[in-house]
From TrEMBL:
GO terms for biological process: axonemal dynein complex assembly; flagellated sperm motility. It comes from the Eukaryota. Residues 88-182 form the PIH1D1/2/3 CS-like domain. This is Dynein axonemal assembly factor 6. Residues 69-82 have a biased composition (Acidic residues). It comes from Kryptolebias marmoratus. It holds the Pfam family PIH1_CS. Belongs to the PIH1 family.
Length: 193
């Protein structure tokens, strides 16, 4: 490694003179000594920092235990009814992808078993002692709201979906509702081909 010479010290001083205000320039007696200037770092370039200035930020912490403020959380509060005594039914989320022989044997479409290559989401909800006419289902881009006379489910979906392109089927023999939802992917033109 090369030792700092006089020319590099002069280069640092010239750079410091360019970046600093001419009103605040002071001659530093120590910089005439080469060994003192060799200890200079990036913090020595430019004007010295002002000590009395406060950094203002838009984030203000209200309590020492708060992580975020109420304004930062944009969830749907109408689904969080704590006074509702109805239990949450059992449910399962299964990610699906369309796979052909060209995917299994040849790997031509570059799909893999990861969730990034899945096109749809299947939500299976068990609703014992429920009829299909008793089910109210509302699906948004990131939230599934299901209500019956006996059960209530507010489910935040793991991936955004196309809310207008879903299908729901109720199986009376299994007493189960299956909701198939097409997922929105940021790179659909790569993953879906």
């Amino acid at each position: 490694m090369e030792c700092l010479g006089v020319s590099s010290v002069q280069s640092l001083q010239a750079l410091s003179a360019l970046l600093s205000n001419p009103q605040e320039e002071e001659e530093d007696e120590d910089c005439k000594n080469v060994t003192a200037c060799a200890q200079m770092g990036p913090g020595h370039i430019g004007p010295p920092p002002k000590k009395d200035t406060e950094v203002k930020s838009t984030y203000t912490k209200r309590s020492s235990k708060d992580i975020w403020s109420e304004e930062e959380v944009s969830e749907d509060p109408q689904y969080d009814d704590l006074a509702d005594p109805r239990p949450q039914p059992e449910y399962e989320i299964i990610l699906k992808q369309n796979v052909g022989t060209e995917d299994l044997f040849l790997g031509l479409s570059k799909k893999d078993p990861s969730s990034m290559c899945c096109e749809a989401m299947l939500v299976k909800i068990k609703l014992p002692d429920t009829k299909a006419t008793d089910v109210f289902l509302d699906v948004n881009e990131k939230f599934l709201d299901l209500r019956t006379t006996k059960y209530k489910l507010g489910l935040h979906l793991p991936h955004p979906i196309h809310s207008k392109e879903g299908k729901a089927r109720f199986f009376s023999d299994k007493q189960e509702l299956e909701v198939t939802l097409l997922m929105k992917r940021p790179m659909d033109f790569i993953n879906m081909q």
